[in-house]
From TrEMBL:
<dbReference type="InterPro" id="IPR030664">
    <property type="entry name" value="SdhA/FrdA/AprA"/>
</dbReference>
<dbReference type="InterPro" id="IPR037099">
    <property type="entry name" value="Fum_R/Succ_DH_flav-like_C_sf"/>
</dbReference>
<comment type="similarity">
    <text>Belongs to the FAD-dependent oxidoreductase 2 family. FRD/SDH subfamily.</text>
</comment>
<dbReference type="GO" id="GO:0009061">
    <property type="term" value="P:anaerobic respiration"/>
</dbReference>
<dbReference type="Pfam" id="PF00890">
    <property type="entry name" value="FAD_binding_2"/>
</dbReference>
<dbReference type="GO" id="GO:0050660">
    <property type="term" value="F:flavin adenine dinucleotide binding"/>
</dbReference>
<keyword id="KW-0813">Transport</keyword>
<feature type="domain" description="FAD-dependent oxidoreductase 2 FAD-binding">
    <location>
        <begin position="11"/>
        <end position="423"/>
    </location>
</feature>
<keyword id="KW-1133">Transmembrane helix</keyword>
<feature type="domain" description="Fumarate reductase/succinate dehydrogenase flavoprotein-like C-terminal">
    <location>
        <begin position="512"/>
        <end position="633"/>
    </location>
</feature>
<dbReference type="GO" id="GO:0008177">
    <property type="term" value="F:succinate dehydrogenase (quinone) activity"/>
</dbReference>
<dbReference type="InterPro" id="IPR015939">
    <property type="entry name" value="Fum_Rdtase/Succ_DH_flav-like_C"/>
</dbReference>
<feature type="transmembrane region" description="Helical">
    <location>
        <begin position="12"/>
        <end position="29"/>
    </location>
</feature>
<dbReference type="GO" id="GO:0033765">
    <property type="term" value="F:steroid dehydrogenase activity, acting on the CH-CH group of donors"/>
</dbReference>
<keyword id="KW-0249">Electron transport</keyword>
<dbReference type="GO" id="GO:0009055">
    <property type="term" value="F:electron transfer activity"/>
</dbReference>
<dbReference type="InterPro" id="IPR003952">
    <property type="entry name" value="FRD_SDH_FAD_BS"/>
</dbReference>
Length: 633
């Protein structure tokens, strides 16, 4: 659906309709002051813009669960959740944010339940919870079931529930509209609005807003092997960089240990939580050796590195689909799980393995390898979702700009996220950001006299949003080539280089970028691997990105237009990620630098803050009551 008409000025624009964007919309509308304004006939003007139909957002693919100490297990308590989150993030976590996450987790889950999420149940009717990597009690001594689940479809449940609630509240959506620009004032201190491209008609809109909230999800498509859907191209992060702001901790990318061989499709951690075991080519359950306390349920970075160590030692296995191919996988053995139980609690996992690998996990070992899964870093925000920059030793907020969910970094995940904490982050901090926007709207309506931002219009040359939209329209006209002029090459094999720039296309560039980033950063890296990728990104790929054009001049549903903008966004992000990675001379959490193998708290107990120029500033980590310790599982 597109909005019936575009308003002159929005009180709030929410970009993204996954768990974070929808939670923000609900957090905003459920604020008492907004309800009051609505009753008085002064309902604020709010629009949710999403490049996908909301129910196609990646949140819907989440499988395993959402973490919370619900009190169903006597040993568990939010303090342990807090401790595990800080330890899981290798002490790069802001402890005030993590404390809030753990404390507010139970009420967040209960609210989801009351909104309609159909959780699986225990025999006595409680919300069912399963063990997940790194979730324990008693300082890591005892794994506890903390991930509240709905079979292996928690994301589907949450996304549909939040969306239904939004529809019930009358939220207006601009679906399949792609945001191309974030517009700030000249000093980068205040938000002015966004520019959005309606993919149905090809029309570029200038959307003015007093508040903009970015909830655009992750950037897994930076890598060739990824669990992420095709839309996860880091748009919000790139928009932030392009607007002159910074990203925090962008060097931390989680590689989930169990991507299905040669597809990268996620085999949920729930498979190991229910009894699945990783085995090498000798049949050995090797995780016992690397993490004697937690074995297969150690934190994800630990398990992924252990898998790579086995492969390096020659104990990897080849994908049975390609027996002569590289031995770059290990086995996931699920045959010890009772088949009936497996079908009951892991139906989606079973179906994925049957459909994509053509094998039966109740009888056969499943070939898996690490897959790019989650971006721990992102747009720096406070615990109320306010976006800030870090300069001169202080945070400087950008008035009216907010972010939430995977595109943001409130710093609860630090250098490595624990399973189940991401949906929680998106729902909790999405809701909090929405509430903060609501307060700002109510405050400004209470004091506002004439329309302070009635920008738009008197002098169009002063209207930054319209000016940016105009630039975008001109660029778009240049991208759209008359039919028949362009080359025929639409190949997507990473190996087939385009013959000329004229033959090139966004999908080929995406594949080449994915391979380069995988070679440079997957699971481990060093200065040389980073430098090689940076050179490609800055030179060859940059030139190719500039030369891209579409192969049809249609403006209606021309997906190649957005594919071009997406790959350009990924390049912007790749540059920042590579620079930040190069600047951190240590190994911590998901970042394993073979040239700096140890953690260095003296120098790097700090968040990297990288700008599009490549400069990196360092922001100290908030430590409350847990000074750094050695991290063992
Ligand atoms: C396969 C898989 C399984 C997972 N399992 C779990 C799990 O069990 N537990 C857990 O806690 N986490 C899990 N995660 C992680 C978790 O699902 C995500 O981090 C979380 O759902 C992200 O929510 P989000 O709202 O930030 O983003 P998303 O749900 O990705 O939504 C992003 C939204 O932004 C919109 N958008 C993006 N760019 C633009 C643009 N330029 N213009 C307009 N709109 C735009 C999209 O249309 C979309 O609506 C899993 C992730 C994957 C990939």
């Amino acid at each position: 659906m597109s909005p019936k008409h575009v308003e002159q000025m929005y009180d709030a624009l929410i970009v993204g309709a996954g768990a974070a964007g929808l939670s923000a919309a609900l957090g905003l509308l459920r604020s008492e002051r907004i309800a009051q304004m609505t009753q008085e006939g002064r309902a604020p003007k709010i629009l949710v813009v999403s490049k996908l139909q909301p129910l196609r957002s990646h949140t819907g693919s989440a499988e395993g669960g959402i973490a919370a100490s619900l009190g169903n297990v006597s040993e568990d308590d939010w303090h342990w959740h807090y401790y595990d989150t800080v330890k899981g993030g290798d002490w790069l976590v802001d402890q005030d944010a993590a404390k809030l996450l753990a404390q507010e987790a139970p009420v967040t889950v209960i609210n989801l339940e009351r909104s309609g999420v159909a959780f699986s149940r225990t025999a006595d009717g409680h919300i069912a919870q399963r063990k997940f990597g790194g979730h324990t009690a008693h300082f890591g001594q005892q794994p506890v079931p903390r991930a509240a689940y709905a079979a292996d479809r928690i994301g589907h449940q949450i996304l549909h529930t939040l969306w239904q609630q939004c529809i019930a509240q009358g939220v207006e959506f601009a679906e399949e509209w792609y945001v191309t620009d974030l517009v700030l004032d000249e000093r980068h201190e205040r938000v002015e609005g966004v520019v959005a491209y309606d993919t149905h008609t090809g029309k570029v809109h200038a959307l003015h807003a007093r508040n903009v909230l970015l909830a655009t999800g992750g950037a897994g498509r930076l890598f060739h092997t990824t669990s992420n859907s095709w839309d996860l191209t880091g748009d919000g992060m790139a928009l932030t960089l392009e607007a002159g702001l910074q990203l925090e901790d962008s060097e931390f990318v989680q590689f989930h240990p169990t991507g299905l061989a040669h597809t990268g499709i996620l085999i949920s951690e729930a498979a190991r939580a229910e009894g699945g075991v990783l085995r090498n080519s000798d049949g050995e359950a090797f995780m016992q050796r690397y993490a004697p306390g937690h074995a297969d349920l150690a934190a994800r970075d630990v398990v992924s590195r252990s898998i790579m160590a086995e492969i390096d030692a020659g104990r990897g296995v080849a994908d049975p689909k390609d027996p002569q191919g590289p031995r770059d996988c290990v086995w996931l053995d699920m045959t010890g799980i009772d088949p009936e139980h497996m079908h009951a609690v892991l139906p989606q996992v079973v179906e994925t393995i049957e459909d994509y690998a053509g094998i039966d996990p109740t009888k056969d070992y499943v070939p898996v390898k690490p897959t790019a899964h989650y971006t721990m870093g992102g747009i720096p925000i406070t615990t109320d979702g306010e976006v800030y920059t870090w300069a001169d030793g202080a945070r400087h907020k950008v008035t009216g700009l907010y972010a939430a969910g995977e595109c943001s970094c409130v710093s609860v995940h630090g250098a490595n996220r624990l399973g189940g904490n991401s949906l929680l982050d998106a729902c909790l901090f999405g809701q909090r950001a929405g509430a903060a926007v609501a307060a700002r709207i109510a405050d400004s309506h209470a004091v506002a006299s004439p329309d302070d931002n009635a920008v738009a219009a008197e002098d169009p040359s002063q209207d930054a949003v319209e000016t940016t939209a105009q630039t975008r329209r001109t660029e778009l006209a240049g991208l759209l080539k008359p039919t028949g002029q362009a080359g025929e090459n639409t190949g997507s094999e990473a190996s087939s280089q385009p013959q000329t720039l004229q033959d090139d296309n966004a999908y080929q560039l995406l594949a080449d970028l994915g391979s380069a980033m995988e070679r440079a950063l997957a699971v481990r890296c060093n200065h040389d691997s980073i430098a090689e990728a940076l050179q490609l990104v800055n030179e060859d790929f940059a030139e190719r990105a500039r030369a891209l054009h579409t192969h049809s001049d249609s403006t209606a549903f021309n997906q190649e237009v957005t594919a071009i903008w997406e790959v350009r966004h990924l390049l912007e992000l790749a540059k920042a990620m590579l620079r930040a990675t190069d600047a951190r001379h240590e190994s911590r959490g998901s970042l394993k630098r073979t040239d700096y193998p140890d953690r260095d708290d003296k120098q790097y107990l700090a968040h990297s803050m990288v700008a599009s120029t490549g400069t990196v500033a360092w922001q100290p980590v908030h430590i409350l009551d847990m000074p750094p310790q050695a991290r063992e599982y």
